[in-house]
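Work through this protein:
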Amino acid sequence: VISKTIDVEFINLIRQEHQRGFFVYSFKRPDINTELNGYELVLRMLDAVTVQHEHTFLDIPYYETEWKDDVLSVVNTCTIVSELNLPAIKHTLDVVQRVRGLRGENFPVHVIFNKHIGGLFGQRVSKSKLASLFGKTSLFYIPDNRNLLEESIDRGVPPSEVSTRSNFLRALAKYLKMTKLTEDAIK
């Protein structure tokens, strides 16, 4: 049985603070997302976390959970991170429709296509085809910059400390600016 309150002490047990000042709340129980009482636990945890922070980013699992629609019904914005392969594009279109069905056609939904390879022959699905598929949904392309990200992970530092001029960071800054999540807003 889940306690009626998820207190600050419990939240602090699963909180990890990054040296840059942001927090990650995580615990190794992915099965909780689909357990019978997982619904109440997840929603109470989200309530406790969002009270403590002005901005909260939530990574919702791709698989079905009983709480997914409730969370998608109350978020301020929705960004879907996808890749450029046909199954991922189809899934992303389904999620966009699901969110719009819950929140209305004018709700801001953004899609980030991760690991984008530019150039004439870079991707099998062109940007113009994606634009026609997604209509008024904002699309962003984050370039595949494995060397930068691998070095960042290996050194345990943000990508900006590896290279301040990378195309990855420029694309990410463009996304943050377009969604009005500037660096000041996420501090």
Notes: The beta strands are 15-17, 23-25, 78-82, 109-116, 138-143. The first strand starts at residue 15 and ends at 17.
